[in-house]
Amino acid sequence: MSGQFPWAHATHPDWRMSASLCLAQIEQASRSGAGAAATLGFLYLTDHHAAEAGEILAFLRERTGVTHWTGAIGVGIAAGMAEYIDEPAMALMLADFAPDDFQVFSGAARPPGPQARTPDGRRAAWTALVHADSATPDLPDLIQDMCGKLAGATVFGGVSSSRHPQAMIADTVLSGGLSGVVFSENVAVASRVSQSCRPIGPAHRITESSGRRLNRLDGEPALDVLLHDMGMPEGLPPARAAAPGQPSAAIQMLQGTFVGMGSGQAFAHGDYQIRPLIGVDPRAGALAIGTDLEEADHVVFCRRDRGAAQADLIRACTALRETIESAHGGMDRVRGALYISCLGRTGTLFGGPSAEMHLVQQQLGDLPLIGLYANGEIFKDRLYWYAGVLAVFL
């Protein structure tokens, strides 16, 4: 293996034109010609091309000679410093992994087990790129199950945001369940997650909850703890003193508030899931969260705005860059990258169209980068919302 992965992206109503433009870019970027040394193709399509995805895949396979492909279909895709939202577009990248170091999987093709070994004795199921169909039930459980099948227990990827039944690519175009690629221990991947939020206070221990209802934190009414973290000015009426049916000024302040939830141990490493605050019970001092609290035993309240989103993405990129420089010999070792971001992060959150992708490139440099705007993001053993997952191949 040598050099960066050839990659390309294009937009055009006619998929043949987009595919041809992409192949021309690939051929220009690769001294050996399009797909001459490649063994695996990454492909992301907007769902304007969903009905033609099978034809696109067959065309690219014939023109590049690459047999194995993985990817997903969504409302939006990303490439370099560009984002394509709700318009016909495609992005692809070709990798030259050793054939024994990866395996495309789906419901019809099982991945290797955690005990499997490559011919050189390395663990065959170390990390995995996972794409999921949003219509699949029990996705969090399936993701955890997938993580348990890996010796390295590391998963990254996202949930298709396609409005078409065809949602994923795993050597064919398919729907339902999980699909993707399992990589061996020989494939070095560094990854990070950004959640676009900034904590507004310390982590709190959950002392009473039920389902999605958060009743008490650190022994106090959850709403009172939140208002304290927000630094509610003195003189505002207590949250539970408002007239029935009339939200107090304090309750109005809660708009745009999110809840980070997880275990105490996870919080020590900044590893928790962000969920929206969807309601309050002023009289009981309780909060309603956008998902069941399940095994979470701690929460932290967060705000999401442009400044928080930019700062957290910079933090994730900085941590990733430091890992690459300290453990892998520097950024010149980067061969290519995938970025799975939430469709809900597009628009004005980062300052305008493509601002998120510009920020990633500013932090990590000009590197081969394609990705998907997803309906849920996958990192480690969890399903995230409103997150960005960046994975770099070295």
Automatic annotation (TrEMBL):
<dbReference type="Pfam" id="PF08495">
    <property type="entry name" value="FIST"/>
</dbReference>
<dbReference type="InterPro" id="IPR019494">
    <property type="entry name" value="FIST_C"/>
</dbReference>
<feature type="domain" description="FIST">
    <location>
        <begin position="37"/>
        <end position="221"/>
    </location>
</feature>
<feature type="domain" description="FIST C-domain">
    <location>
        <begin position="222"/>
        <end position="381"/>
    </location>
</feature>
<dbReference type="Pfam" id="PF10442">
    <property type="entry name" value="FIST_C"/>
</dbReference>
<protein>
    <submittedName>
        <fullName>FIST N domain protein</fullName>
    </submittedName>
</protein>
<dbReference type="InterPro" id="IPR013702">
    <property type="entry name" value="FIST_domain_N"/>
</dbReference>
